[in-house]
Write a structure and sequence with these properties.
By secondary structure, the protein is of the alpha+beta class. The chain contains two helices and nine strands, in the order ββββββββαβα. β6 and β7 form a beta hairpin. The protein starts with 21 loop residues before the first strand and ends with a helix.
Length: 180
């Protein structure tokens, strides 16, 4: 009897599933104060940060596998969907846009964009195909959340632009090339 092949670690999964949907690995679920971070060396989720009482993630948050951003981590992804899923879950999604952002820590500024995706199985967000389909107040709230979230880590987060699917796909392809 032959052994089952070992699956790749989460950060090395193919970016797209066989149906063409983007994969997002969840590290913090909606409503949680806990932010986990995928430890690539040990192939496990590890507690990274706990938000202050009264603050929680507005949507599920994670990363796009087989990509790499300027900060040395896989590209960040925020997933709009009907119900939260546990950290470590891989969610098939469609890309709708990106919030371009800069982060400054200890005097060093680098890009750290937030890609916006919708779970392909979502009913509530099924109408969202491109950034204009996402309510402006939702985008404002997401930006404010990440400003506050990063401030808790001693990092300044500054949104510098909002773009739709086309620009997001170009930035995602660049992050995919960086990971190769």
């Amino acid at each position: 009897m032959s052994a089952m092949p070992t699956p790749p670690p989460l950060h090395r999964l193919a970016l797209r599933d066989p149906d063409g949907a983007f994969r997002v690995v969840i590290e913090a679920n909606q409503g949680s104060r806990n932010k986990l971070k995928y430890d690539t060396e040990h192939a496990m989720m590890e507690l990274h940060l706990v938000l202050p009482l009264g603050v929680s993630f507005p949507y599920d948050f994670g990363f796009l596998p087989s990509t790499l951003g300027a900060d040395g981590d896989p590209l960040d992804a925020l997933v709009l969907m009907d119900e939260s899923v546990p950290p470590g879950t891989v969610v098939p999604c469609r890309l709708v846009g990106v919030i371009e952002a800069e982060q400054t820590k200890k005097g060093k500024t680098e890009r750290n964009d937030r890609f916006l995706l919708v779970a392909t199985s979502s009913h509530r967000f099924r109408h969202c195909k491109d950034l204009p389909d996402v309510a402006t107040d939702v985008l404002d709230e997401v930006e404010h959340f990440f400003e506050f979230y990063n401030k808790q880590k001693g990092v300044e987060f500054r949104p510098v632009g909002r773009h739709g699917r086309r620009k997001a796909e170009a930035l995602l392809k660049a992050g995919e090339r960086e990971a190769e």
